[in-house]
Amino acid sequence: MAEHALGGAHTGLLATFSPGHSRLNWLLLAVPVAVYANATHAQAVAFALSMVAIMPLAHLMGKATEEIALRTSQSVGGLLNATFGNAVEMIIAIFAILAAARDPLVAQTMVGVVQASLIGSILGNLLLVLGLALLYGGLKHKEQELNVAAASTNGSLLLLAVMALIIPAAIDYSHRGVDDVLLLSRAAAVVLLVLYGLALLFQLGTHAEIFHTETHSEHEQPTMSSKDAWVLLTLATALVSWMAHVLVHNLESAVEAWHMPELFIGVILLPLFGNAAEHFTAVLVAGKDKMDLAVGIAIGSSVQIALLVAPVMVIVAWVAGVNLSLEFGLLETVATFLSVLVANSLLTDGRTNWLEGAMLLGTYLILAVAFLVM
User: Fold this and answer.
1) 252: which residues sit within 8 A by CB, 6+ positions away?
2) Domain residue spans in the chain?
3) In this structure, are residues 129 and 278 in contact, taking their beta carbons and an 8 Å threshold?
C-alpha cells in the first residue's frame, strides 16, 4: 500500500532529482548546456560539460540500483551492483569502439582512450578511492578493522587480472607482432570472463558467509516504488549514453584545444568524473567505520573493471572489427601492477589507518603527473 502511494504520485522519483536530495544534482544543469554546446559546435566546451554531466547521472544510476536491490535478495542485489556499478565506463568505451569502427582515421585514438580509461578506473579505485577512504576513516577513527578473507580474495583476483595485462605486453615487446597479441588478448578475455563468473558464484553463493557485511541497506526502507526505480535507472542510463556520445564525438577537439595528452584524459579525467558518485560513497561509509563496505566498493569495482569490463570490451571490439588488445602500454601496465601490490600489502593485516591512505594518495599523485607529462 505504501509502495502504491509512492508510485501514484511519483514523489520518490521526483525527489531524487532535487538538489536537496543530493548536491550533485545541481550538475544536472550541465546536460542541456552540453547538448547546446554540441549543437553549436563548441566542441571543447561540449566535451567538458558532458564529462561533468556524467557525475550526477552516475549517482542517479547508483540510487536506482540501490532501490531495486532493497526489494531483492542480497545475492541479486550484489549482482545488480556488479552490473551497473561500472556502467559509465562500459558505455563510454562502447561508443569509442563504435567510433573507431566507423572511422579508421580515429581508430587509434579511440582504442587508446578505451585502454586508458580502463586502466584509469582500476588505478582510481585502488589508489584514489581507497586512499581517500582510509585517510578520512583514519582521521575519524584511530584504527579500523576489515574482513581480511574478503580483501585477500579480491586482491588475488586483481593479481590474476594484472597477469593478463603483463603477458600481452611481454609478447608485444618481444616483437611477436600485432596478431599474436590480439589472439592472446581475446583468449585471455574469455578466460577472465569465466573466472569472473566463478568469482560471483563464490562470493554470492558457495562462500557468501565470508563476504557478508551488515550494511545500512539491510535496515533501509525503499523511498520510491519499484516501477519508479526502473524508470529512473532507464532514464539515467539513456542520458549517460547521450552524454557519452557527446563526449566521444568531441574528444579529439578537446585534446587539440587543451593541449592535453589523450593518455591523461583517459587515465585520470574520465574515471575521475565517471566514478565520482562511487568515490563519495566509499569515503562516507569509511567515516562511519564501515571499512569492509568502503574496501568492497574500491577493490570490488577494480575487480569488475579488470575481470568483466575490460574483457567484454576486447570481445565487443573483436566483433566490431576493431583491434583492441590487453596490451595497454609499458607505463600503464607497470603502474597497475605496482598499485595492486601496494594496495594488497596495506590490507593484509586487516587494519587500516590514515597514514596508509596518505600513501595511496601520494602514489596516485605521482602517477597522475607521470601520465600528464607522457
Assistant:
1) 106, 109
2) 2-373
3) yes
Contact 364, 253 (CB under 8 A): no
The model's pTM is: 0.81
Burial 314-324 (b: 16+ CB within 10 A, else e): bebbbeeebeb
CA-to-CA distance for 90 and 309, rounded, in angstroms? Answer: 6
Q: Are 351 and 143 in contact (CB under 8 A)?
A: yes
Query: What CATH class does 2-373 carry?
Result: mainly alpha
DSSP alpha helix (H) spans, 40-106: 43-69, 74-84, 87-102
The candidate with the shortest Cα–Cα distance to 332, out of 146, 130, 124, is: 124
* Interatomic CA distance for residues 361 and 363, integer angstroms: 5
Residues 6+ apart with CB under 8 A from 296: 150, 154, 211, 213
Amino acid making up residue 293: L
| H or E element at residue 352 | strand 351-352
> What is the C-alpha separation between 302 and 159, in angstroms, rounded?
11
Pairing relation of β-strands 144-145 and 351-352?
Answer: antiparallel
Helices (H), 250-350: 251-258, 262-264, 270-274, 276-287, 291-304, 310-320, 330-347
Angle at 191 between CA 371 and CA 199, to 5 degrees: 90
Q: How many residues does the chain have?
A: 374
* Nearest one of 268, 302, 305 to 282, comparing CA atoms: 302
Inter-CA distances, 355 with 78, 142, 183, Å: 31, 10, 43
Place of cell 585477500: 152
What pLDDT, in 10s, does the model give residues 220-245? 677 777 888 888 888 888 888 888 88
User: pLDDT by residue (tens digit) across 271-307?
Assistant: 888 777 667 777 877 888 888 878 877 888 888 888 9
